[in-house]
Each structure stands twice: as C-alpha cells, then as structure tokens.
Recover the amino acids of this structure.
C-alpha cells in the first residue's frame, strides 16, 4: 500500500483533466460527480494509508517514496518525493474527507452557474495542490503546494471575476500570501546554506547545523505561517476572500488551506524547538490573533464575515497550541475545526442560497421553521465552535488552553476571554438569523430548505463536529496516541500533567462558554436593546472594532501607497527624464561636438540607414564568398 | 553518416541565412511564408539533434568545428556548444517557427520581413556557437541589422527613433568590445576563446579594463540598469515577432556574453566587480518591477518586467556558484519562453483590439476564455509560480545569491513579491472586472494558429517546471567547470602575467 501512496495525488489530477478535456460535452451534474469521485478515491487511498500505518510498529510509521528527481544543481537536491507518516496521513484524511463532502455539496450549490466546469477544475486542482503540500517530503516541494493552494485560492476567490470586488480580493489574497512566501523562500535558502539539506527528516536529524540561525529561520517561517494562515500581521486578506463562492470559503478559507501554516509549524517542529524565542513569538502571535479576530467577529453583521473572523481566531488557537509545543493538540483542533467550520460555512451557504445571496443577519430571523435541517446542523456547528461541553471544539480547545496555562498564564487567560467572546458571537449567529421573528418578510417568504445533495453533507459534517472530540479525550486520546510518535523528540522530559487540575480547568472553561451563550441569548432574545447600550458604553473602542481596528487602512497608507507613488515617480519622471534624458543628452552632445549642423534626427537617420545598407551588403557578400 | 563528421552547428546557423537568400527568389507570398516556416522548422528539428546526441556529463565544448579561416590575421572558423550555450541555441530555433507563424498576417513587404527574420535567426545562432572572438563579433553585429529594420520599417508610430536608439546604443557598447578583442589578440596572439583560456590571465588592473569593455557591451544588451532605456522604446515600437525575438534571444546575448567571456577570461576582475554588478542587478530587479507597475501600455509593462527578470539572471551569474550560474543559464531560457509568450499574447490582443492600453480592457476573460487560460499560465510562469519553469531558475538564482550575499538575496526576494504585483495587476485590469466596453464584446477568441503557438510554449513551461533535470543534466557540468575555473584563476598573483607571443 505505501508504495502506491502516490495514487492519492493522481486522482484529483485525473478528475481535473477529464473535466478539462470533456467538460464542455458533459452536464454540470456529471462534471460535479466526476470531480467528487476523484476526491473520494483519494480519500479511500488516505484511509488505506491510515490502516497500513496503523498495522505497523509505532516507530516504523514513516515512509518516503521517490517519484522522480526534480531539481539537482550541485548540492541543491530537491526531488518529487512524498512522506507518508501519521501527520501527513491525518492531513490527507481531513483534506480529502471534508473536501469530498464539500465537492458533493457544491454540485447543488453551484447549480445554474455558467462556469461549473471551471469551478470543479479549480476545486480538483486545489485538492491536488493541498495534498502536494502535506505529502511533500522536502521544503521545495512543499513550496510548490504552498503557492499552488494560494493560486487556487486566488482563482476561486475571483471566480466571479466580473465583480471588481471579487477580482480585487483574489489579487489581494495572492499578494499578501506572497509577502509570507518571501519568508518561506528565505528560510529555505538559509536552511540550505547552513545544512545543505532540504528534506524534513534530514533537517530534523541534523539540527545542529542550523542551530546558530534557528531563531531567524523560525521567524521567517512564522512570516509564511501568518500569510497562509491569516494571522497577525498578514490576516487582512481572509475576510475579503469571502467574495468567493461559499463552498470555497468552507474548503479553502476555513477547513484546509488556511490551516497549512499550523501544519508547517508541526512539520518543522524540530526547527522551532531550537529557538525558545521563536516559539514564544509563535504562541504570542497565535493568542493575540485569536483575541483580536474575535473582537472583530463581534462587530460583523455579514454571516460569512463573522465566520471568517472566527476562522482567523480559531487558527490563532491552533498557532497558540503549536507555539507552546502542544503540536498534536494544535493538529487536533485543526481537525475538529475543519469539521465544524466547514459545516458552518456550508450551512451559511444554504441560508444564502435560500435568501438570494443575502448575508446580512439583520435581515434574517425565524429561519428555523423554513429550513430546519440547516438550523440544526448550524446549531451543532456553532456549539462546537463555541466549545460547548462534549462537542468537538470543547475538547480540542481545552487541550490547547491547558498547555497554554503551563507555558504562560496570561496566554491562558487571554485564550479564555476569547472563548467567552467566541461563545457569544457564535450563538449570536445562531439566534439572530434562525430564531425570533422574520425581519424581512419578502426574503423570509422565499426561503426554502436546500436539496439533499446539500443537506446530506451537512449532516455528515455535523456528525464530525458532534463526535470528533471523543477521539481526543484527555488522558485517553486516541488522536494523541496516533500522532504523538511524529513529535516524539519534542517531549523529552515533559512532566505528566496533574489530572485533577486539568479537570478543574475544563470546568472553568465550560462555565465561561455557558456564560457567553447565556449573554448572547439575553442580548438578542430578552433585552434586544442591550447590544446598542453596550456599544455606546464602549465609546471610541466601538468605532475601532467596527472598522476592524483600521489595519487595512494602515497598511495602505504606510506600505502600498508610498510604493505606488514611488513607482509612479520612477515611471513618469525618473526613468524618462533623468536616465533617458541623460542618454539622449549624451547623444545630442556627441552630435553637436561632431559638427553636425543639421538636426539630430534627420541627420543621424539618413547617415545610419545608408551606412547600414552598405555594411549589410558588405557583410553578406563577405559571408557568401567565404562560404 | 556519423554525426561527428557532419558540421551540425554550421548547418543550424547557416540554414536560415541561406534560406533567407533563397526566399528572395521565391514568387508569391504563400510560398514565401511556407518556405520560411519550413526552414525554421527544419532548423529547430536539426537543433534537437544536439540535444539527442549530447554527451551528458561532459563539461567542454561539443559538436566542435574548427579550421583556419583567415590565417593571415589568425582568425579561425571555430564553433562549438556546451551546457551554457546549448539551450540558448535551442531557444532560438524553437522561437523561430513560432515567430514565423505569428507573422502569417503581415501584409506590408512580406518578403523583406521574412528575409530579415530568417537572417536574424541565423545571426543569433551564430553568436551562441562562435568560439572565435572575431567570428563572435561578426555575428553579434549581424544580429543588429535585421532588428534595426524590423523595428524601423514594421514598427509603431515612433519606430525610427526607437530603431536608431537601439542601433546606436548597442553599437556604442560593442565598439569598445571590438577594441578589447583586438587588444586581446595583441597581448595573446589569439582570437580564439579556447586558446585564450589556456594562456593564463592578465594582471588584475589590465583585466579590469578588459572586463569593463566587454561588460559594458553586454550590460547594454542585457540591459542592466541604468543602460536600459533603449529597451522599452524598442519593444513598444517593434512588431510583435520582433519583440519576441528581442526579448527572447537578443537580450540573452548580453547575459550569455557575461557568462561565456567575462567570467573565465577576466576572473580576477570578475571577483572584484561582483559587488557593483550585484547592486546593479538588484536595482534592476526592484526598479524594473516598480516601473512596470505603473505602465499603461501592456507592452511597455512586459518590457520593464524583462529588465527585472534579467536582473535576476545577472544576479545569479555574479553569485559565482553552481546554483546561481546554473539557475541563471536556465533562467535565460525560461525568460525567452515566458516573456516571449507574454509578447505573443500582447500581440494577439493588439491585433484584435488595436490598443494595448490597460484602460481599454477589462473583463476579457468572459469574452476570450481560451486566451484567458493561456494568459493565466504564461503570466504565472513569469511570476515564478513553483511547478512552472520560472520558479526553477529563479529559485536557484536566489539560493546561489544567498550563499554569496545574504543581504543581496533578501532584496532580490522582494522582487518576487513585486513581480506578482505588477503581473496580477495587469491580469486584473485586462481579464477581470465587468466586460463593459462595447469594442471588447465582439473580439474573437484565439484561432488554431495562435493556439499552436501558445500551446507549444505552455508545453515547454511545464516541461521545465516539472522535469528541470533534463536541462540541468546538461547545464551543470559546464557550469561546475566554469565555477571551478574562475575560482582558481581569480587570484592573479598565482598566475603568470602577460605571456605575449
């Protein structure tokens, strides 16, 4: 089985090529099923790999498979080679499993769009690139997947490219990610310069070579993480990315691609562990992002944007997790988040589908009776997101907070405050659209439940959001047991945690979550004037939050505009006037000094055309004679 | 017949030239077009023999032809290719038939136009295979003439100014090179590149003068900042096929000259000049990209992008390590394919719309889906997306540069962000947004001929991106040899000075 691991990459390519070649002659539905089947076949391969690894002794669960030699220049050797280990297989399962459900959902969601073929080609391409990213055995191949998913993201955000706002959002996503990739590229160069190695296992086995520059390298990698995983300071592209079709938001901008940064830290943990400074930076960026994004989620009225900011916030938790060395906890939250956030987005898509694209929650209300399945699945997703006890997000988030406490108490406290806000805004997103009375009669009267091709994936994801947490029960974590061997070298000498204390912490966070939910209920069902009063009492902070802390404006003013103006000055003045002016000036002087009485142009042209003719004829004649 | 007995390089270089003369005798435009296509295609197929019969792992020159040509002056007819020149020859012969195909619609003085195109191709091949400096110089000058006329006769409104500027600027640089070539002969008694390598090196100060004379000629050709202003003028005015040849291969004569002649002939000077050239290269990367960002004319935007891309090539060359130089050699090839492709695309859109101004476009993807798909892939190749050709060259250049100078690599890497900026900006302005201009709603999508041209380029883009070792296998030995040679000859004290004969 392990030697056929490459098949997981082949199926999405096959699906893509089939649809590309024959898509024009196929019905939209067939195109959708071809693309979905391709992802499903990859999922089967992932399942096969999972059980194969499970059947092997723990320390031997690591297999490298060479596909072909790629770039060899002197010592620089990057190959197309894949690494099958519990980490890559876990990611593979999430990507293909959740990916398959979202593909199926899209068959219903994209029905009637005029470019269904293009949509599914891009989606398959994304799955292929994401799998390349997670199965790459070396940095350079990972980089292919890393920018490849960025490309898919660019194409799919701008899928409705006629809308200028969507086109701009796609471009912004790609460019901001390129800033992150700048860090990735330099980190790879630095690692290679110091160690001469590029593969993850080689680097992990020879960390002493890069130890002197570990902080620098790890911080460069962190820059890449903040780009791809939408963390401070590069998170600004993700909210805009919601302009893409909703299945894209679910798959790429919630469940899989944006978590690639968390995967990267886990994959290269050996480098990060060399530098406690860098690890502290990772954890700090994570928890601060989690907090700030949650404040911004509080102020949004667009259902998808609420979810977008909550994604940034939740990835912040994951980054916090890997930053405090709890790698498998971070990946565990990545998995549960993939379930519940994909679910929330798809359910939001179902709402949007029913309301002719309306996303403003202030215009919704009472949708529960019109679309019960969407409501119940959304509720399950929101409960998981809020960390409601026993739902999947509860276990994974708590594990991270528990590790954060051991690392630094303030991180735990900030994380807990964030959990309170999360519970509040996620239930706000349930209560306002689904409960109460309809606010817009027209929209309400046209609302309808989605077809089964959309609701069945919702229910399957809801199962994951409901039950996924039990894979990672404290002290009996199947997930941890499966994944920990990958990070074995990271846990030397870590003391056993006190079981009782951890249970107490679970109790505390349960209370906080319940309080958040209770407040949301009070504010939107009981005393509906409360939110406005509360906002007034905040004063100018409310304005800051409403405007997303003016971060976009700041970047425009400090970076983009100055560069744009500088470029304009170069293009309109410096290049034509100064540089070219000097060149033409020299030509003019030469002409004058040479005694040319006639004007520069007529004089030179005539003379040169003549001499050229003579020269050309002479040269040609000479060549012919010699030959 | 054994391949060694066949003067393959002479055939490849002179087939287009002879073909161009025969063309003059052919009646009828149809015959002339097919003849040109036939000649360039045969030339391409013959050049593939170089690839097929290549001795992998050999660092020296292959397919060598040498005999005394003008013995009184010591000028030999000496041809050969190695890993550094092989793919430039292939690039030239590959673009040949594509440019002819593109020119199918030319109506104005077609015969002369095709004559010049063929002559141009032969001349450029000659540049890349000549190992005698005088022969090299003759071919070098020969390439000037057809391009001068292509721009000056078939160009845009300001063609005469652009053509003259192109000609004089290049001439000014090459005149010094000619003086340097003659001086080399005076000191060493030889015009032959291979002989010169074996004669030891000059004192460092003398080397500096020679280096300056050669490098100036090459820097203008590349063009390296601040010698670049002839390029946008030439590109904007040139007909599309002319731009493709200009960007695709003529500029490579500059970077090729730096690697081929400046590095091994003047190694001590090279080492001293590294900081200056790296700085100019980095300025070129950043400055070219920023200026490209603010161009209204799509062609001008691509022209400035060339300045940035060739800055990468020069940076790789002067990293003076295998990663940098191999990357640079591959990137010369890549740039020819990608930027050649961009110029083709601009030409195709101009042919339909009679405009290249960004303001005149918007939303074309809805109207031209096939064009859009090709534009996307070729743009991404130019952006350096991993998995496509540009990445492989660019990344090796950066890896090489990082080993030579960390700070240089940091600045150059900023260039990959800017490259994405100006190209995505252009793509956004042309292809995305609403299709709101009535003139754009009637544009026809690509025809079969255009699809053949672009599909050929895309095949090469993917081939290099996914299987670059096909190329590196042949490039690396020569580059390793060169790096080694420069390293051991860079310290002038160790070498016997001035051995005049």
């Amino acid at each position: 089985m392990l030697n056929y691991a490459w098949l997981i990459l082949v199926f999405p390519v096959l699906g893509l090529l089939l649809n590309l070649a024959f898509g024009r002659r196929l019905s939209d539905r067939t195109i959708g099923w071809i693309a979905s089947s391709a992802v499903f076949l990859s999922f089967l391969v992932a399942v096969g790999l999972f059980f194969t690894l499970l059947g092997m002794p723990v320390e031997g669960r690591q297999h490298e498979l060479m596909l072909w030699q790629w770039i060899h220049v002197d010592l620089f050797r990057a190959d197309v080679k894949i690494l099958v280990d519990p980490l890559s297989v876990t990611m593979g399962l999430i990507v293909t499993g959740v990916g398959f459900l979202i593909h199926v959902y899209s068959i219903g969601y994209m029905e009637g769009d005029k470019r269904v073929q293009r949509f599914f080609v891009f989606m398959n391409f994304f799955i292929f690139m994401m799998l390349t990213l997670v199965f790459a055995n070396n940095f350079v191949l990972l980089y292919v997947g890393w920018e490849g998913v960025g490309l898919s993201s660019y194409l799919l955000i701008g899928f409705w490219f006629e809308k200028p706002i969507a086109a701009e959002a796609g471009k912004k996503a790609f460019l901001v990610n390129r800033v992150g990739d700048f860090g990735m590229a330099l980190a790879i160069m630095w690692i290679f310069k110091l160690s001469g190695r590029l593969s993850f296992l080689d680097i992990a086995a020879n960390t002493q070579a890069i130890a002197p520059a570990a902080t620098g390298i790890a911080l460069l990698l962190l820059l890449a993480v903040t780009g791809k995983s939408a963390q401070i300071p590069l998170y600004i592209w993700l909210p805009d990315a919601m302009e893409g079709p909703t299945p894209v938001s679910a798959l790429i901008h919630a469940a899989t691609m944006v978590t690639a940064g968390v995967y990267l830290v886990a994959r290269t943990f050996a480098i990060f562990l060399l530098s406690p400074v860098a690890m502290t930076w990772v954890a700090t960026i994570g928890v601060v992002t989690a907090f700030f994004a949650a404040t911004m989620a509080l102020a949004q009225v667009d259902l998808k944007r609420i979810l977008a900011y909550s994604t940034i916030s939740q990835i912040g938790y994951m980054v916090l997790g890997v930053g405090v060395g709890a790698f498998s906890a971070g990946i565990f939250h990545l998995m549960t988040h993939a379930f519940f956030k994909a679910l929330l987005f798809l359910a939001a898509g179902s709402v949007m589908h029913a309301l002719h694209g309306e996303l403003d929650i202030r215009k919704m209300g009472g949708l529960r009776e019109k679309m019960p399945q969407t409501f119940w699945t959304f509720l399950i997703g929101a409960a998981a997101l809020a960390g409601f006890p026993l739902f999947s997000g509860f276990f994974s988030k708590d594990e991270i907070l528990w590790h954060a406490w051991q690392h630094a108490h303030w991180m735990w406290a900030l994380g807990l405050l964030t959990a309170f806000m999360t519970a509040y805004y996620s239930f706000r997103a349930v209560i306002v659209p689904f409960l109460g009375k309809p606010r817009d009669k027209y929209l309400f009267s046209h609302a309808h439940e989605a077809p089964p091709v959309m609701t069945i994936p919702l229910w399957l994801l809801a199962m994951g959001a409901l039950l996924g947490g039990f894979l990672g029960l404290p002290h009996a974590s199947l997930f941890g047991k499966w994944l920990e061997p990958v990070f074995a070298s990271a846990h030397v000498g870590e003391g056993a945690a006190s079981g009782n204390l951890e249970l107490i912490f679970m109790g505390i966070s349960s209370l906080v979550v319940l309080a958040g939910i209770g407040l949301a209920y009070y504010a939107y069902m009981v005393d509906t004037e409360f939110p406005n009063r509360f906002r007034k009492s905040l004063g100018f902070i409310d304005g800051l939050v409403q405007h997303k802390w003016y971060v976009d404006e700041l970047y425009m003013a400090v970076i983009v505009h100055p560069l744009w103006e500088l470029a304009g000055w170069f293009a309109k003045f410096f290049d034509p006037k100064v540089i070219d002016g000097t060149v033409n000036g020299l030509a003019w002087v030469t002409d004058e000094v040479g005694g040319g009485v006639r004007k520069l142009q007529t004089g030179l042209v005539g003379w040169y055309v003549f001499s050229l003719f003579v020269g050309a004829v002479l040269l040609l004649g000479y060549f012919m004679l010699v030959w | 017949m054994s391949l060694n007995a066949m003067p393959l390089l002479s055939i490849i270089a002179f087939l287009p030239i002879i073909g161009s003369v025969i063309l003059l005798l052919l009646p009828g435009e149809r015959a002339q077009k097919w003849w040109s296509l036939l000649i360039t295609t045969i030339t391409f197929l013959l050049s593939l023999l170089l690839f097929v019969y290549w001795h992998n792992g050999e660092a020296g020159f292959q397919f060598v032809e040498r005999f005394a040509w003008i013995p009184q002056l010591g000028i030999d007819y000496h041809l050969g290719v190695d890993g550094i020149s092989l793919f430039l020859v292939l690039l030239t012969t590959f673009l040949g038939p594509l440019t002819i195909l593109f020119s199918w619609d030319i109506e104005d003085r077609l015969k002369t136009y095709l004559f010049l195109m063929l002559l141009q191709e032969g001349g450029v091949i000659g540049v890349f295979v000549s190992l005698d400096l005088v022969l090299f110089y003759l071919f070098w000058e020969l390439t000037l003439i057809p391009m001068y006329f292509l721009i000056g006769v078939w160009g845009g409104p300001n063609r005469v100014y652009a053509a003259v500027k192109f000609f004089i600027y290049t001439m000014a640089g090459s005149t010094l090179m000619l003086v340097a070539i003659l001086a080399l002969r005076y000191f060493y008694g030889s015009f032959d590149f291979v002989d010169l390598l074996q004669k030891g090196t000059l004192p460092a100060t003398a080397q500096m003068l020679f280096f300056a004379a050669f490098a100036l000629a090459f820097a203008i050709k590349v063009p390296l900042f601040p010698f670049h202003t002839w390029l946008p003028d030439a590109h904007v005015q040139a007909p599309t096929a002319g731009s493709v040849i200009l960007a695709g291969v003529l500029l490579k004569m500059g970077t090729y000259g730096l690697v081929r002649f400046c590095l091994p002939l003047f190694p001590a000077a090279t080492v001293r000049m590294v900081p200056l050239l790296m700085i100019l290269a980095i300025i070129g990367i950043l400055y070219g990209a920023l200026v490209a960002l603010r161009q209204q004319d799509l062609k001008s935007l691509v022209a400035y992008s060339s300045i940035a891309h060739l800055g990468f090539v020069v940076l790789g060359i002067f990293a003076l390590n295998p990663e940098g130089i191999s990357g640079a050699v591959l990137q010369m090839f890549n740039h020819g394919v990608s930027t050649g492709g961009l110029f083709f695309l601009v030409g195709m859109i101009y042919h339909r719309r009679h405009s290249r101004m960004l303001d005149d476009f918007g939303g074309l993807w809805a109207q031209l889906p096939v064009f859009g798909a090709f534009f996307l892939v070729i743009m991404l190749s130019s952006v350096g997306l991993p998995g496509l050709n540009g990445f492989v060259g660019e990344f090796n250049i950066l890896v090489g540069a990082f080993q030579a100078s960390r700070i240089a690599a940091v600045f150059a890497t900023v260039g990959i962000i800017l490259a994405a900026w100006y190209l995505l900006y252009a793509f956004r302005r042309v292809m995305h947004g609403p299709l709101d201009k009535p003139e754009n709603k009637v544009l026809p999508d690509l025809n079969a001929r255009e699809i053949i041209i672009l599909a050929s380029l895309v095949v090469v883009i993917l081939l290099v991106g996914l299987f670059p070792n096909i190329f590196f296998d042949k490039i690396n030995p020569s580059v390793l040899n060169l790096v080694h040679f420069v390293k051991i000859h860079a310290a002038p004290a160790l070498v016997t000075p001035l051995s005049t004969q």
Notes: Chain A has a mean pLDDT of 89. Chain A has 28 helices and two strands. Residues 339 and 463 of chain A are 9 Å apart (CA to CA). Chain A touches chain B through 67 residues (CB under 8 Å).
